[in-house]
Write the structure tokens for this entry.
Amino acid sequence: MPIAAVISTPHCSADLPPELAPVFAADHARLLKQGDPFTDQVFALPDVVRHVKARYSRFVCDLNRARERRSPTNGVATLVDFDNQRLYRQGYNLNEEEIQRRLSLYYDPFYAELAQALARPETLFFIDGHSMDAVGPKNGKNPGQPRPDFAIGTRGTETGDLRPEAFPLSLSPEIARFVRARLETIVADQGWSVALNTPFFGDNVTRFSSDPARPGARPGFQLEVNRRLYLEADNLTPRPDAIALLRDRLAIFAREIETHLRATLPPRKP
């Protein structure tokens, strides 16, 4: 029976579109390492409604940032990577016209596909799949600090409640705590740790997918997987057996979340 979920992996690719490859100083290995490598495999759960994947590197256009977000270090298109190293060759001008071109070609189609998948009547919830370094990078969250094995993001606090900024939650606090508890149980035999809304609490894909003001919105969450669970020490080479184990556990997890949501959420209006 299909899992009633939409999966997204907005940072899974390290590819560059042909017209941009000549202007990037960063090579494929660097782009791979600074993205979410192989998350399209980790989150390739069987029989979901749809798996919406990025075509190109997050440094072409970051699909998990707000469309209007401009920052040279952490916006929708940046000048440096998470180690503060320049991405482009000398003399390249990343101007607003170029950013708008990339948004039109790469950002908007991703969100159109995501919106279409979320709006399908069989879709009950979403999982936005990511990976994170074992230790926070220079331009990332909690630089230099060790990270948990999994981080669930519902745009709330570490207890699942509203943040001081009062962002709309992607899951109610009660369901968020249930999600964390179920994942803890499912991975307990591996000794893996699970955190809620730390070091990440969910960014633009989670906001968009669960936005109560948007028709077709669904409950769900961002899920970060620590790369040490499935990559070699070089942070580049996948371990197929480890990916298969993660994928199997995540499929069990998704099934249990679906069952709980069907029993908990009110019937959706036609």
